[in-house]
Design a protein that fits this description.
The protein is 52% helix and 23% strand. The protein is of the alpha+beta class. The chain has 3 domains: 57 residues, no CATH class; 101 residues, Band 7 domain (Tetrahydropterin Synthase, Chain A, 2-Layer Sandwich); 55 residues, no CATH class. It has a 3-stranded antiparallel β-sheet. A 3-stranded antiparallel β-sheet has the order 6-7-8. Strands 1-4 form a two-stranded antiparallel sheet. Helix 4 packs across helix 6 and helix 8 crosses helix 9. The chain starts with a helix and ends in an 8-residue tail after the last strand.
């Protein structure tokens, strides 16, 4: 007889009736127990990143902000709201505003803020991003409406700081810190742009005339000093005439008629340093 058959028969005689179904039920129960434990652990462990905080509500009541790292919660009882602590950027839509001097302009801006207190940001305002956007629009309209056009164009940096200060004070109860506000673009009416262009052109012409007149004044002053020197030293004037003739003579295709008046021979001889038909040393001109 086959020995393996004898082993199978002996095992069947030792096994109690209904043993196989009992083992299967135990395995199924163990499987479901492990599955429930896995689900509980899955809902109990939250991984919060370094730039995030988890605001935990237990039965509807806030118990604090937790993180970063591993956060343990009670499944199906705790509710978690994740708050990002990084810098948020809000693009303020273009606003049509009338300035203090009754000029209509279109202005848009950018607001940079971050969440400073996650618990306040969740408990005090429903949607802090939308709230900051709406508040930035109204504050921008108020500040621009109190400013004149020239201030808006020339003092933009100061207006940015004023906007940032006001928004920071208003959003502080929400746990929000406004770090910077920047006006992106100021769009003027077409007629105002043409008027400013004409004004700038007139200003450039005025500066050019002033510079030209100043140059003429300085040139006249220098020529007056030169005339005094020529008057004291006629030989210097004659040398200047000869130098001018040399410069003109560089043009080869030119015939020059230069009249020499009577009585200038002595000045020419003096300019050339000729005394009695001989060259003489001339004293240098005093500076």
């Amino acid at each position: 007889m086959n020995p393996w058959l004898l082993v199978g028969v002996a095992y069947a005689q030792q096994a109690p009736p209904g043993g196989a179904p009992s083992n299967i039920a135990t395995i199924v129960a163990l499987f479901f127990a492990l599955l429930i434990i896995f689900i509980i652990l899955l809902y109990s462990i939250r991984i919060v990143k370094e730039y995030e905080r988890a605001v935990v509500f237990r039965l509807g009541r806030a118990i604090g902000a937790k993180g970063p790292g591993v956060v343990i919660i009670v499944p199906f009882i705790d509710r978690v709201t994740i708050v990002d602590l990084r810098i948020h950027t809000v693009d303020v839509p273009r606003q049509r505003i009338i300035t203090k001097d009754n000029v209509e302009v279109s202005v848009d801006a950018v607001v940079y803020y971050r969440v400073q207190d996650p618990l306040k940001a969740v408990l005090t305002v429903r949607n802090y991003n939308l709230a900051v956007t709406m508040l930035a629009q109204t504050t921008l309209r108020d500040i621009i409406g109190k400013s004149e056009l020239d201030d808006l164009l020339m003092r933009r940096e100061e207006i940015n700081k004023e906007l940032q200060k006001i928004l920071d004070e208003l959003t502080d109860p929400w746990g929000i810190k406004v770090t910077m506000v920047t006006i992106k673009e100021v769009v003027l009416p077409e007629g105002m742009v043409r008027a400013m262009a004409r004004q700038a052109e007139a200003e450039r012409w005025r500066r050019a005339k002033i510079i030209e007149a100043e140059g003429e004044r300085q040139a006249a002053q220098i020529l007056g000093e030169a005339a005094k020197i020529y008057e004291e030293h006629p030989a210097a004037l004659r040398l200047r005439e000869l130098q001018t003739l040399i410069e003109i003579a560089k043009e080869k295709n030119m015939v020059i008629f230069y009249p020499i008046g009577l009585g200038k021979e002595h000045a020419t001889e003096t300019a050339l340093g000729i005394v009695g038909g001989k060259l003489a040393k001339q004293k240098p001109l005093e500076e």
